[in-house]
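User: For documentation purposes, I need each entry recorded in a consistent format: the amino acid sequence on its own, followed directly by the corresponding C-alpha cells. There are two entries in this batch. Please keep commentary to a minimum and don't merge the entries.

Assistant: Recorded as requested. Entry 1:
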Amino acid sequence: MKRTSISILILILISQAVFGQQKPASKNPEPQIRQYWFVLLTKGDNRSQDSVTAAKIQAGHLANIQKLYMEGKVKVAGPFGEEGDWQGIFIFDCETKEEVEKLLKTDPAISAGRMVYQIRSWYTVPVGSFAPGKPKTPLF
C-alpha cells in the first residue's frame, strides 16, 4: 500500500511540475494576422496558339496549380466567371514576393504568354484554407 501511495504522490508532483510551467490560456486571444500573396492573372499578349496547343497549355496550368496546392504554396486558385481581361486569381503562402515570382514562372500559361500577373501582399488570419502546411487532399 505504501508503494502505491508513494507512486501516486510522485505522479502528482511530476504532473504539477510539467503542467504548472505552462502559461494559462488567454481569455481573449487575438488572432495573428499573416502575410500572403494575392496574384491577379490577366490576359497576356500571346494568345494566338491553336486550340490543341491552348488546351495543352491549360492542362499544364491546372496540373501546376494542383502541384503547388499540394506543396502548400497555393491556398486559393480560380478563374473569374465573366469574359474580359481578368482571368483568375491565386493566393500564395510564401515567404517572399521573389519566391512567388519563381513559382509563377513554372506555370505553362504564364511561360507561354497567355497570361500575365500582378502580385500584391495580402493579409488574413491563418485559419481554414489559410492554415499553414500541406493539404491532405487534392484541390480538384
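Entry 2:
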Amino acid sequence: MKKAGIFILIICVSVIYSCKHQKLLKSTDLTHKYEMANKYYEKGQYYKAIPLLEELIPIYRGTQKAERLYYIYAYCDYNMRDYILAAHRFNTFVRTFPYSKYTEECQYMAAYCHFQLSPKFSLDQSDTYTAIEQLELFIKQYPKSERVETCHQHLDELRYKLEEKAYQIARQYYRTGRYKAALVALENVLIDYPDTRYREEVYLLIVKSNYMWADNSVETKKHERFINTKKAYTKFASSFPDSEYLVEAQEILEKTNKNLEQINN
C-alpha cells in the first residue's frame, strides 16, 4: 500500500508539472518564457527548454538576448547527444555572432560534435574527415587558444582510426586473394601514414602479396613478379633486421629463389 501511495503521488506531481509546462508554452509572457528557458537549461531539463527557445529565437533575433538564446539552444542539443543538430547550432552561432565572447568556444564545439560522431574504423568515415577538417580550421583560426592542444589530441585519435581502416582494408585484400589490390593499398598506407604503427606488418605483407601474386600469375609474368618479391624481401630485411617475422620472410625468399631457378632453367 505504501509503495502504491508513493507511485500515485509521483503521477500526480508529474501531471501538475506537465500542466504547468503546457500553460507556460501557451503563455504570451515572453519575459517569463525567456527566464524559464534559462532556468530549464540550468537545471538540465533540455527537452523543456527547447520548445521555448524555438519560439523565442525568431522573436528576439537582433536583440541582446538573442546571443544567449542561440548559445544555450546549441548546448541543449549537445547535452541531449544530438550531435548532428548541435554541430549545426554551434556553426549557426559562429556565423550569427562572429565577435561574441562565445564564438571561439562554439567553433570548437562544432568540431567536437563531429569528433563525437566519428564511428569505429570499420564504418563509413565521412564524419571523421569532417571532424579533421573542422579541427584543423579551428587551429588555423585560433592558433593561441588553450584548446589547440586538445584539438591535436583529437586529430591524432581520428588519424589513427583512418590509419587502422586503411591497414585493415589492405589486409582484407590479401586475405581474399586480391594481391594486386593489396599491394596498391599497402603502398598507400606507407604514403599516407609514413610513421604508421603497422609499418613492419605492412612491409611483410608487401613481401607476401608480391610472392602470392607472382605464384598465381601466368608464366610470362612470373619472372618479373618473383624479382619484385626479392626486392620487397630485401627492403623488409634491411628495414627490420631483428623482426620477429624475419624467419617467415626468409622462407618466402627461399621459395621465390626456387621458382626463379625453375623459370631460368
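Summary note for entry 2:
The radius of gyration is 30 Å.
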